[in-house]
UniProtKB/TrEMBL annotation, chains A, B:
It comes from Thermalbibacter longus. Keywords: Lyase. Coiled coil: none annotated. Belongs to the D-glutamate cyclase family. This is Hydro-lyase. InterPro entries: D-Glu_cyclase, Putative_hydro-lyase, UPF0317. GO terms for molecular function: lyase activity. Gene3D superfamilies: PSTPO5379-like (3.40.1640.10), PSTPO5379-like domain (3.30.2040.10). The keyword Lyase applies.
Length: 267, 267
């Protein structure tokens, strides 16, 4: 993927976050700080934190937990102790009672002592690894978002949280499917191995050309659609339960951690 | 390991649990229902469940989560949907404010609607695998408990819960240490690979002959002490925080799940 920004922005996570904090970069983070783990962010009030944590534990493929902050702390002590989750992402989404009400570039004014932040692994990690192995990524080629679909598979519920598994789809040439599985399986904290290969009807997906999130991509002759558990799952499930306040990253505008990708590669 | 009981008691988990429920077996479960995953049990009030769950997530080696029941439910829906955690373990320990007050064979009278049960993976799973690979287990040979030690390594704290890592020690012949590591690494839900090999001083252990729990075992010429994260860790940490009520299995008297060991073997 060629990304103009990646040529101009610092490649060290801490320097990139400093620029973001100062308001110098409010764009997506794909292709930035290559080689470092990026993360989905979900912030919830303490009253909802147990259900959400349990949902993640019970559904590790869509919800791979990288870190949970201490109650009231916006500091990710394990993945980036020098960072502040209120200011160090390029863009956020703020939801009240399940409704999107704002898309700010920092959330200092929203922070409260009863909030907990969850950082979840993100597909960028395994996509970089797939690309390095010469496996084509159609949505990169098309310059669009990966297509995502609600499935007929139910997640394991937890307290007030329940809902379907959301998957992302990447068309892979038949001869490279096995390799794509092997490679992604090495990153359990980035959704791991696919959950389904081939016929989308088996997942209850009626039409690949009409994704529920992201953009449709063409599937060429000799390619199979390959489906991975998607980090949109926990967000969709949590929003459906309408918590009074929930803050997430804006799509594609992830948190860049200090962890090199090798740190989340399976032993 | 020869175990008289294993010759007389049923080998199917559900049948063994039925006998235990009827009060016909109140002994340890080592060697029973071979080939099935056994689990540590920790029951806490809802007010403590978030801290404990987060502690487990942050310290997966000593606290490998197999299952967390829904609030108020004693049914392990995932690992043994036909079981009841109030009656299906041979013996329990009941603690109030951190003090042991009872060791009953069932806890129906203690159960409350605000309790949550945690099932954590247990070393029996990888010990069976080590034994099958021809690796000697000294505490089996001696017919005693595995020696366990408090270390100078701090666990990652979570809320009110903090404390040292507890490890178990098994002396392994030098030429088999690598194999023992490979085999146990395949079972991340049973503490996984060792945390330390060799000199106990590096863990802050002063004297291997004086374990903090269990029994001392001799280390023969040509053997190295090998240390694994131990499931006593979460119990010790939780008790130190003195929750008003906490119920666990009695040492060695584990919960026998329906899961074959292959289910928790790493892909």
């Amino acid at each position: 993927m060629t990304n103009l920004a990646s040529q101009r922005l610092p490649s060290a996570p801490s320097e990139l976050r400093r620029l973001i904090r100062r308001g110098c970069w409010a764009g997506p983070t794909a292709g930035l700080a290559r080689g470092y783990v990026q993360a989905n962010l979900v912030i919830l009030p303490a009253d909802w934190a147990y259900d959400f944590l349990l949902f993640c534990v019970r559904n590790p493929k869509p919800c791979p937990l990288l870190e949970v902050t201490e109650l009231g702390s916006p500091i990710p002590a394990q993945t980036a102790p020098g960072a502040d989750l209120r200011t160090d992402l390029p863009r956020y989404r703020v939801y009240q009672d399940g409704q999107l009400i704002d898309e700010p570039t920092e959330i200092t004014g929203w922070w409260r002592d009863d909030l907990v932040a969850f950082l979840l692994g993100c597909s960028f990690t395994f996509e970089d690894a797939l690309a390095e192995a010469g496996i084509p990524l159609r949505h990169w080629e098309c310059g669009c978002n990966v297509p995502m679909y609600r499935t007929a598979l139910a997640c394991v519920p937890a307290g007030r949280l329940h809902g379907p598994l959301v998957v992302s789809m990447r068309p892979i040439p038949a001869r490279q499917v096995a390799r794509a599985i092997e490679i992604s399986a090495r990153y359990p904290l980035a959704h791991g191995a696919p959950v389904w290969i081939g016929d989308p009807a088996g997942l209850g997906i009626a039409d690949l050309d009409r994704p529920d999130w992201g953009d449709p991509v063409p599937i060429n002759e000799g390619e199979l659609p390959v489906f991975w558990a998607c980090g949109v799952t926990p967000q969709a499930v949590a929003l459906a339960a309408r918590p009074p306040l929930m803050i997430t990253h804006a799509p594609g505008h992830m948190f860049v951690t200090d962890w090199p990708v090798s740190r989340v590669e399976r032993e």
